Amino acid sequence: MPQRPAPFRPLLAGTAVLTALALAACGTTEAPAESPAPGAASESVTVTDARGQEVEIPAGVEDVVALEWAVVEHLQTVGVEPVGVADVAGYTDWAGTGAPLQGEPTDVGTRVEPSIDAIAGLAPDLIVAVAGRDAGAYADLEAIAPVVVLQGADAAAPLETMYDDLRLVGQAVGAEDAAEQAITAFEAHVDELTATVEEAGLAGTSLAQMDGYDNGGQIAIRPYAEGALLPAAFEAIGFENGWPGEGDAQYGLGATDVEGLSTLGDDTHILYMAVGDDDVFVNQLADNAIWTGLPTVQAGNVHRLPDGIWLFGGVDSLTAYLDALVETLAPTP
User: Looking at the domain assignment, is residue 7 inside a domain?
Assistant: First the structure.
């Protein structure tokens, strides 16, 4: 795994599927022994996903497989514990603080190559993925269960896209009200933090969120440009994005090197996250003359935020991120 996991990957493995076993395990003609789980749909629903494809989802969705970490969070937010998750250990490291994993889901492989056999063995009612994979790669999954694809991100409207994905998950599992309640609660918290930032005299402070990678001794920096989710979140509470470069059209992520950080304003605060001792900014850049010579570094404006808050997550991750950010820059007495 790279030091800073990417939010998505372009391909899905086309492993053979035990379709007959998967289909045989799905559903029954008998009346259910128990009432449907809270939020489960009472009748089938058809949704239109990020592919523009209509997906019919049967009644009573309970067992859902999540192929991306943001999907896991969205499901949990509306009250569904996924039965299968891609890269459980990675989720625990990178997202487990902001949105702790609920239940004991089966690991279904990596986000790059989820295991078709493992997914089929779970006989899920629904599989949820994110845009970015080869469209032809969904055929094996669709032989197991309906597949709903979320947009994942859109640099033209990052917060709105996150809301739309959460709403789509809520619609797919019959929990629209839970999705709306979560969005309303998040927006109310944003209002509270906006007041805190204003009272602390921090409104308009320039921030630059970034990741650092050590690629065989060469340090690469991934800045979060305008349109990335995290800057959109901190801009919503009164800060400004201090990274001047552009990012990609989906996730708003840029690329530069240490020298490229000289474009930052002298008063811009640098923010980053890491896992454990894997800290490029401390371990590899401590003796780098360009890095240590940056005015903002010399001023002590470099902040490592807590581990385990997913940088491409949902309302719970963003709440944890913004709370940590405000506490870092304006600590409570």
Answer: no
